Amino acid sequence: MTTPAETTLDMRGLRLHLPGAARPVLAGIDLTVAERETVALVGESGSGKSLTSRSVLRLLPPGATTEGVIAVQGEDVLAMNAKRLRHLRTHTAAMIFQDPRAAINPLRRVGDFLTESLRLNADLSDDTAAERAARMLDAVGLGERVLGQYPGQLSGGMLQRVMIASALMGDPALILADEPTTALDVTTQAEVVGLLDDLRERFGTGLLFVTHDLGLAAAISDRVYVMYAGRIAETGPAQAMFERPRHPYTAALLRSTPRLATPQGRLAAIKGQPPSLREELTGCPFAARCAFTTPVCTEELPPHVPVRSEPTRLVACHHSDELADQLAESALHD
Amino acid sequence: MTFLRFALRRLAEMAATLLAASFLIFGAMYLAPGNPASFLLSGRSASPEAFRAINAQYHLNDPFWQQYLRWLGQVLRGDFGRSIEYRTPVSTLLASRLPSTLLLVAMALALVVVIGLALGWTGAVRGGATDSTILVATTFAVGTPSFVAAVLLQGLFSVKLGWFPSSGTGSGPASMLWHLTLPALALAHYLIGMLARVTRSAMLEVMGHEHVTVARSRGVPERAVIRRHVFRNTLGTVLTMGGLIVSTLLICTVLVETAFSVNGVGQLLDLSTTTKDFPVVQAISLIIVAIFMIVNFLVDLLLPLVDPRVTLGTRGGAV
Ligand SMILES: Nc1ncnc2c1ncn2[C@@H]1O[C@H](COP(=O)(O)OP(=O)(O)O)[C@@H](O)[C@H]1O
Ligand SMILES: [Mg+2]
């Protein structure tokens, strides 16, 4: 069941251009999520994670132009008509947003929020939709009572549960979660992540989990994509990648992530700033901040190549092989 | 705060405000130049006896406080006194003129709500040239004084096209509707422009909120997104304008009824002001103040129904 047509999400060569930007904001993203798989997309803020995940629902900024294919269960999202797109958004793929308080209309009751999409698309009767909403609320650990409440009466953690319940309403094949715990306090974060993982298992959905937290990515995902300046720097199975990063950017991210393994919890923020969208880029986008830059880095864009003896990993770095040991060492100890 | 406490507090506030307003209204009449008796008798060679008789009938020689308290006592018993000009009870006078004013204000209010909201909605949703056209039109509407609008409407629709009468009130419902169409337009145009602009900018503001994008991302059809998540969220703002809308209608109806010779309460207020018919002016002024306060009270009662974040007695930014 892993032929490309049946991959839940198959994004190929996605390029996204915004008006006024000197280079594409997304410069050729290849990303897949298989059935029931959890995939993490990590990177610093501004690297294009949200744009990548939102484009799966064709939720693009005004004036954005795209190239490439985003196939969800074999159908290209970028080529859908309005009706298919609504069907995709109602039944096939659903998104969970960062700040549930901003994402839910404060003037409508939770019950309305949960059922409106199915009711308005005439897919379910009011009663059936309400029944399903009650069941989904139960699945996320909230009582039926919540149906009649307004968002203002619920805590942030409860609202994010409502958001998750709403994502499950249409029985989707894919859930996109864009930093779903960033706006929550620490204990709630853990609960929400645990819940999301449980439900993914129980309802058999694929999950694309966007986060800037590598620890979280490692804990929840099967595979990870590391994104930098609109490109995938490195991808592979979570454990292998975080134990032996092959891209200097991955190593730098690991160093800036608090982990149990880090002695004294010394954290090194990555020096410098990601390149602005007003700059055109030749060569490797990370060259300006990388400790191992050589002339070739600023001249040639590194292609994505499989890591030797680890064919499930891809890395885009000219010096990946030479640096392998050094990066593994530095990621752990700095 | 419980509903009962809120209602009682607001009623007490309204009573106090009305009392203050009554004092100001009566005081203004008292201080106004000219004397009703001399006005009544102007042009006629009145005998000092006639003059004295009128002064006695209306207690014009009593001290201010006595006059005020006597008047207030009557008003509290529902008696607004007798008109000096028409020599009939003010309440009879008002009752005979009320239907045309009520119909006129109701027609204007309907126009304001329907056209104002529709224009604001269309401008915000369509954008582009449609929006620019609506903006220009509403700027024009807001900038045109009622009396100018009255002249323009009469010139175009009654003199040139002959579709509507240029003045008068008519009798019978159909004829009244026909007669009051142009006055209602003259009365409504400013508020249509205002409401359209407020609605438009409120909708544009809400459209920038994340929950609207999220609604789209969940497959909610576009029309429903606009209706249920954009327009719905501007209702609080629109409702808050209710007080302003009603008071503007009441005040402008004086100008419009005069311009179109509609025999309503507004025209009566205008006539009574010129003839110094104090009891009539006082009664109408007081009623306008009372209506304004009642409308604001109703707005405060309705606001929590429209926006669950607003609790009784705290007007918040409703978006
Ligand atoms: N609506 C938009 N209009 C213009 N630029 C945008 C818009 N959304 C995102 N961007 C730009 O695209 C880049 C990637 O943004 P985003 O996908 O939100 O990053 P991330 O989610 O990784 O923090 C950023 O440089 C951001 O400024
Ligand atoms: Mg983001």
Please describe the structure with a list of short key phrases separated by commas or semicolons.
heterodimer, A: 334 residues, alpha/beta, Rossmann fold, eight-stranded mixed sheet, 12 strands, globular, B: 319 residues, mainly alpha, MetI-like fold, 0% strand, flat, binds adenosine-5'-diphosphate, binds magnesium ion
Structural account:
The complex is a heterodimer of chains A (334) and B (319). Chain A has 334 residues and is α/β, with parallel strands linked by helices. Chain A has helices spanning 49-55, 82-92, 100-103, 110-120, 126-139, 156-168, 186-203, 214-220, 238-243, 248-255, 295-299, 320-333; strands spanning 9-17, 26-33, 38-42, 65-72, 75-76, 93-96, 174-178, 206-211, 223-228, 231-237, 305-307, 310-315. The model of chain A is unreliable at 1-5 (pLDDT under 50). Chain B is mainly α and 319 residues long. Chain B has a domain at 90-306: Orthogonal Bundle (MetI-like fold). In chain B, helix 6 crosses helix 8, helix 8 (173-207) packs across helix 10 (222-231) and helix 13 (265-274) runs antiparallel to helix 14 (278-306). The mean pLDDT of chain B is 87. Chain A binds chain B through residues 54, 57, 59, 85-91, 94-95, 97, 99, 102-108, 116-117, 120-121, 150, 152, 166, 170, and chain B through 209-211, 213-221, 224, 228-229, 232-233, 306-309. Magnesium ion binds next to helix 1 of chain A. Chain A: It is found in: Cell membrane.
